[in-house]
């Protein structure tokens, strides 16, 4: 695509948007905010929209968006050599002071490299000069394990944008040059400067030490930046409405941050602690302002009903005429009032995540619900008129046996019976759609030392589940292959030595198997090795707030099939739980 075409396309997109910001560049710090995927995906990300607002709320900053071109345009652009342009002013991205990436998914790592190449900025930080923009990488992945991206970033911003954005802007503004800027950022909370560290490996290739360079101000461990309280913060909410994307015409708003359940496999649960609710009045005020652009509200939270005033929020939104879609609901959220409010607002499907088929295995992973309770909730769901149920399960969990797989079948069949009973009464049978994913042990969880399950065993379990679940009317299951998860695990668990694989996959169009073969990186070392004796893990350079000793004790407790109860559930679970702590 030529530069002219890019400009036309950008103006066309802007003409259909409401709420974007355009500021003159003169005298302002210029930030190109990059989402390493297409416009369609990026504009559905509330995190991306929030960082855009946070930058543009500062008078002396102009922040413009840039996305990965669609597949066809990307090829054309790489061939023509036309530079990547921002959306708002169609300025070459390479002319900006800062390129700030917001990275949410491991699969987008190759797109970070592509976008830097399109912007004519060297993808490797050590090849950049003082004339290049400062490349900052932030987003959800930086909470988890930034190391696979370390060689591409001048700065990794680890934590929450509300704290990171003002600190970054002050440092860039005050700095005399690039090196001075890095030195100013290095001691600040949440800023990791990979080039200020030497990584030392032991004879077995494990990380032995991150050694900060003397005189740089780089700390031995970088503490994640997280806001203590959301009481005085504006909740992240859609600021740009666009008809072009999945959630484009929906008003997205974050209601509560974090989840208190402490499931042992869940990086989001551990890494967004503590649970912090946004003020209900402000949520409703922002919703009222957004009403002229949208009549659908998407509530973004990993544990919506951890908000103490959730019923008031839902009722308020309903009274304003919004239809409401929750991003995800925990099982204990599903009370009669909540489900009936959702049904009244137009919801016909609800998603829940039993994760495992048996109470025993759920005690191992600290998913603090029982089959009896799940069936109770299914009854609440279907009797309130919800027609369809979406289920998430995992396989490859520690201590899993065939009985647990049979449990997935049995539980699903029992939920189906409840669905049919209520459906027949209404004259309309719904459906159950299940999704089964292999466990990828995630950094920053109680499973961070675990190897991924042997692929042959996971394959066998997948086959067994397909047999068990075949031919059940109104029940449809998607059981993911291990191969897909394998490379995601490499990106999730890797360190900076995985960077050549990312570069090779970027060159060859995403063929990860070929990329691993070409670079000679030992993927199995990262994926299938027990890390429990490693002196350090790649993600230990970031202190996310949870102690390794806590994760170890949680893992051991899991093997003893003991729950760790969040305080909120302590009382109500007394009747179910064999072990309390
Ligand atoms: S309930 Fe869901 S969001 Fe909360 S810790 Fe468990 S898996 Fe994570």
Structure description:
With 581 residues, the protein is of the alpha/beta class. It has 21 helices and 19 strands. The chain has helices at residues 3-15, 39-42, 46-56, 71-80, 109-118, 140-144, 161-174, 178-185, 267-271, 280-290, 310-319, 336-344, 359-365, 371-383, 402-426, 455-469, 482-493, 499-507, 512-519, 523-527, 548-559; strands at 29-35, 61-67, 98-102, 134-138, 155-157, 191-192, 197-201, 207-212, 222-223, 250-254, 256-257, 276-277, 296-300, 323-326, 349-355, 388-395, 432-438, 475-479, 542-543. Strands 2-1-3-4-5-6 form a 6-stranded mixed sheet. The chain has a 4-stranded parallel sheet with strand order 15-16-17-18, with helices on one face. The chain has a 3-stranded parallel sheet with strand order 10-13-14, covered by helices on one side. Helix 16 (455-469) links the parallel strand 17 (432-438) and strand 18. 47% of the residues are buried. Mean pLDDT is 92; it is low at 572-581. The site of iron/sulfur cluster has 10 residues, from helix 9.
């Amino acid at each position: 695509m030529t530069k002219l075409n890019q400009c036309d396309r950008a103006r066309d997109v802007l003409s259909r948007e409401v709420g974007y910001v355009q500021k003159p560049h003169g005298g302002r710090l210029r930030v190109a905010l990059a989402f390493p995927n297409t416009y369609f995906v990026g504009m559905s990300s509330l995190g991306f929209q929030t960082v855009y607002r946070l930058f543009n709320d500062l008078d002396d900053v102009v922040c413009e968006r840039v996305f990965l071109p669609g597949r066809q345009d990307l090829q054309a652009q790489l061939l023509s050599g036309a530079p990547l342009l921002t959306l708002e002013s169609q300025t070459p991205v390479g002319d900006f002071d800062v390129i700030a990436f917001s990275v949410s998914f491991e699969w987008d790592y190759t797109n970070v490299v592509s976008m830097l190449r399109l912007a004519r900025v060297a993808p490797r930080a050590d090849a950049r000069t003082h004339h290049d923009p400062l490349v900052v990488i932030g987003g959800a992945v930086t909470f988890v394990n930034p190391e696979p991206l370390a060689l591409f970033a001048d700065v990794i911003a680890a934590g929450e944008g509300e704290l990171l954005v003002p600190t970054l802007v002050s440092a860039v503004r005050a700095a005399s040059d690039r090196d001075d800027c890095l030195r100013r950022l290095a001691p600040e909370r949440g800023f990791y400067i990979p080039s200020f560290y030497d990584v030392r490996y032991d004879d077995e290739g494990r990380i032995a030490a991150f050694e900060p360079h003397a005189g740089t101000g780089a700390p031995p461990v970088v503490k994640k930046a997280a806001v203590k309280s959301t009481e005085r913060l504006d909740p992240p909410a859609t600021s740009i409405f666009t008809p072009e994307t999945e959630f484009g015409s929906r008003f997205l708003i974050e209601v509560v941050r974090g989840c208190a359940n402490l499931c042992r496999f869940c990086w989001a649960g551990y890494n967004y602690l503590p649970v912090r609710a946004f003020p209900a009045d402000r949520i409703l005020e922002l919703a009222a302002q957004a009403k002229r652009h949208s009549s659908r509200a998407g509530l973004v939270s990993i544990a919506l009903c951890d908000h103490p005033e959730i019923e008031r929020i839902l009722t308020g939104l309903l009274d304003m005429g919004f239809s409401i879609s929750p991003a995800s609901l925990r099982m204990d959220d599903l009370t009669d009032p909540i489900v009936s409010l959702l049904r009244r607002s137009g919801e016909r499907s609800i998603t829940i995540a039993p994760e495992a088929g048996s109470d025993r295995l759920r005690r191992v992973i600290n998913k603090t619900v029982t089959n009896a309770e799940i069936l109770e909730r299914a009854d609440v769901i279907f009797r309130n008129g919800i027609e369809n149920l979406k289920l998430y399960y995992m396989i490859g969990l520690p201590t899993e046996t065939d009985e647990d797989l049979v449990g997935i079948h049995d539980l699903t069949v029992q939920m189906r019976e409840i669905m049919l009973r209520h459906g027949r009464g209404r004259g309309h049978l719904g459906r159950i759609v299940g999704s089964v994913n292999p466990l990828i042990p995630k950094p920053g969880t109680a499973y961070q030392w675990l190897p991924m399950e042997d692929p042959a065993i996971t394959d066998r379990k997948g086959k067994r589940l397909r047999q068990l679940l075949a031919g059940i009317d109104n029940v449809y299951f998607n059981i993911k292959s291990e191969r897909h998860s394998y490379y995601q695990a490499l990106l999730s668990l890797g360190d900076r030595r995985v960077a050549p694989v990312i570069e090779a996959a970027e060159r060859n169009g995403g063929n990860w198997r070929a990329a691993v073969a070409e670079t000679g990186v030992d993927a199995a070392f990262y994926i299938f090795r027990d890390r429990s004796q490693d002196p350090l893990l790649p993600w230990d350079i970031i202190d996310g707030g949870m102690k390794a000793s806590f994760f170890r004790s949680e893992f051991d407790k899991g093997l003893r099939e003991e729950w760790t109860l969040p305080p909120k559930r302590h009382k109500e679970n007394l009747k179910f739980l064999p072990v309390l702590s």
